[in-house]
Amino acid sequence: MIEIKPYERDVFYYETDKMGIVHHSNYIRWLEEARIAFLERIGLPFEQLEALGLMVPVLHVEFDYRLPFKFGDRFRVEMSISKFNGVKMNFEYKVYDVDTDELRGGGKSEHCFTDTQMNILRLGTQRKELYAQMCEAIGWDPTK
Amino acid sequence: MIEIKPYERDVFYYETDKMGIVHHSNYIRWLEEARIAFLERIGLPFEQLEALGLMVPVLHVEFDYRLPFKFGDRFRVEMSISKFNGVKMNFEYKVYDVDTDELRGGGKSEHCFTDTQMNILRLGTQRKELYAQMCEAIGWDPTK
Amino acid sequence: MIEIKPYERDVFYYETDKMGIVHHSNYIRWLEEARIAFLERIGLPFEQLEALGLMVPVLHVEFDYRLPFKFGDRFRVEMSISKFNGVKMNFEYKVYDVDTDELRGGGKSEHCFTDTQMNILRLGTQRKELYAQMCEAIGWDPTK
Amino acid sequence: MIEIKPYERDVFYYETDKMGIVHHSNYIRWLEEARIAFLERIGLPFEQLEALGLMVPVLHVEFDYRLPFKFGDRFRVEMSISKFNGVKMNFEYKVYDVDTDELRGGGKSEHCFTDTQMNILRLGTQRKELYAQMCEAIGWDPTK
């Protein structure tokens, strides 16, 4: 499997809520930040996908909150692609505290591919070249 | 089961993203809006819970996106409590388009109860009065 | 001047920050919510403007924070158009606590009009019909 | 005047809106990100100020939008303290596109100091030690 530098950054003040911890909705945004950085690092920058008329909407997202992040913390997202078949692409995420290496939470997301009109695409048959490029970037063998 | 008026409102412009649809992270916020309105409507306003030193952090959240919402749409959240035992409280949500009554997505959330120091509480033994009040509000029989 | 029902709603939990008050950035979003409701109420719904290929980006925004809003509060935005000449449209806002009628803050925003390619439009010459409609909705005499 | 490394980062996907550009409210959040990084870099980390029971709420904020940022852009905030007297602290900001060095917008913010109960503090008389430390960090001569 490909080794990708994990995404990390400091918690923003405006991400906290009145409980004094990061509001749970923001983790869903962190997953997106990490996902976009991940795709860029494996050679599939989102801007390029969108320039090809490809959109990658979210079908499902979930997150398990173990320990809260606070302002002053720095988080790191380790992630991998758990499924890719040209119709769906799924990711798994683990979110760590950078200072302690403690696992603070984890999640999953499922995605499909559409054109700019939101019509679902089967990359294997409708965008063969891009599909081959993505398989290679991901380290996937499409013939299996 | 108790009949509660569903939560609804218009999509905000700032909730959209460059795909022209509501960004997926905002649905997680909609669930919170609906949850807080729901608790208020069954007689458990969040302000009152917090005034009692009770916090209700999120342990897990998930959402299935079927059809996107756009600016100009109005959404309605129908929800119910799927579990309550004084240690955990789980909710289920369905999100509809108000104009068409179309089901656009659905999700779940799991919560626990803590004091203001984030120590987990067992309401049944540690906050008996509040637990009885919550059971009654929810229409739950704690003796079962 | 036209009398328009002010925009109001409850503060959302996720709008608070670790100071326990509404994060200051959210007031800028409240102004947008109020502005869109205002335009709809005077007969210029944003969806319709966008359907005509018109975008109304923000050129300037400012806000004075007097007293913070907290979760549990309900806010009301009273606003008016302070300038409209077919090239720019400016608004002024006052934000009140609904329960106490206390003025909690106020702001301004400046906008221009563009086509979907972000080219600036002069409505008076380039979109005469829309300009006339807007002048009428706003109660503006374009001949002055 | 002190030379501080400007704050910069990539635009996040979720910061865009249906116009395809960064929603204007997010610039206000960028200013906060930059401000907190700035204070940390001059030796006044926000966590430390808050640990001392000091809060720094926003009294006023404004922003001029010249050219929009899009997803794929990277922004840089150059900023300075325009006023500091122990009662108020004002900042000025310029936001540049990192790739082109183009000035895309600029803004201002005004702040006061309060204790955790939101009572306004005069640092010069009520928190003399901290005031001296801040003056030194900022490069301010309090005797002038």
Describe how the helices and strands are arranged:
The structure is a homotetramer of 144-residue chains.
Chain A: E1 7-10, H1 24-41, H2 46-51, E2 58-65, E3 74-84, E4 88-97, E5 103-112, H3 123-126, H4 128-138
Question: Can you walk me through this structure?
Answer:
Four copies of one chain form a homotetramer. A five-stranded antiparallel sheet of chain A has the order 1-3-4-5-2, with helices on one face. In chain A, strand 4 and strand 5 (103-112) form a beta hairpin. Chain A has 144 residues and is of the alpha+beta class. Chain A is built from four helices and five strands. Strand 2 (58-65) of chain C pairs antiparallel with strand 2 of chain D.
Task: Evaluate the radius of gyration of chain A.
Answer: 16 Å
The dominant shape of chain A is: elongated
Show unreliable segments of chain A. none
Tell me the helix content of chain A: 25-40%
Largest pleated sheet of chain A: 5 strands, antiparallel
Q: Strand share of the residues of chain A?
A: 25-35%
Oligomeric state of the chains in view: homotetramer
SSE run of chain A:
EHHEEEEHH
Average pLDDT figure of chain A: 94
- The number of strands of chain A is 5
Counting DSSP H or I runs of 4 or more residues, the number of helices of chain A is 4
Which class do the helix and strand fractions of chain A yield?
A: alpha+beta
Question: How would you write the strand order of the largest sheet of chain A?
Answer: 1-3-4-5-2
What's the end-to-end separation of chain A, in Å?
16 Å
